[in-house]
């Protein structure tokens, strides 16, 4: 590729050759090193020999779509993933978020919007206001250094965005954190009008953190306002 040292690398995955060209041109103009693939299978082949800092992938593609690609990547890596979708692909979009995607952009999109999302994702670690030491509160021990979580001594594996969301909530135990504040803190200001993020990721956290049969012990919904983190005794 001839990329300069420290140049950020992005893999673009889309079965539409024109979209690949547009994205490659726009991202390259911003100094990113780009490689492209036409579907998930080809993307996995690229990932075996090249280690990008981010993946941008379409959802519906031949051989392997974006959701399955997200699952395969998440089994090996925590790099940021942005999915591209059309407005009618709501179900597929949620499936991609469930599979480990960090963000999505709806087609048609402006290049400036996508570039802003790319910059936000590449800046994501560490989480905003993240402390240097472990957070020990109630039933939780959260270590930002190793990005590990223990709940009553049980290790819980979280995706990067799930972890960032939990850290932010754990920094404000017992307090109501509004939807807008959570979105800005974890996904950036450009995502404050996208409450779908919170619905999906809070659901993920509840499944992983809550005791069996108790879906509201730690993450309390404050209707129309936000969420309250109850860390336990």
Architecture overview:
The chain is α/β, with parallel strands linked by helices. The protein has two domains: 9-122, 3-Layer(aba) Sandwich (Rossmann fold); 135-229, Winged helix-like DNA-binding domain superfamily/Winged helix DNA-binding domain (Arc Repressor Mutant, subunit A, Orthogonal Bundle). The chain has eight helices and twelve strands. It has a five-stranded parallel sheet with strand order 2-1-3-4-5, with helices on both faces. The protein has a four-stranded antiparallel sheet with strand order 6-7-8-9, covered by helices on one side. Helix 2 (40-49) packs parallel to helix 3 (66-74), helix 6 packs across helix 7 (179-187) and helix 6 (160-170) packs across helix 8 (196-209). The longest helix is centred in the last third of the chain and has 14 residues, at 196-209. The relative contact order is 0.10. Mean pLDDT is 85; it is low at 1-6 and 125-131.
How is this fold's topology laid out?
Elements (H helix, E strand, L loop, with lengths): L8 E5 L3 H13 L3 E5 L2 H10 L4 E5 L7 H9 L6 E6 L3 H9 L4 E5 L3 H12 L12 E3 L2 E4 L4 E4 L2 E3 L3 H11 L5 E3 H9 L8 H14 L9 E4 L3 E4 L4
Parallel strand pairs: 1-2, 1-3, 3-4, 4-5
Antiparallel strand pairs: 6-7, 7-8, 8-9, 10-12, 11-12
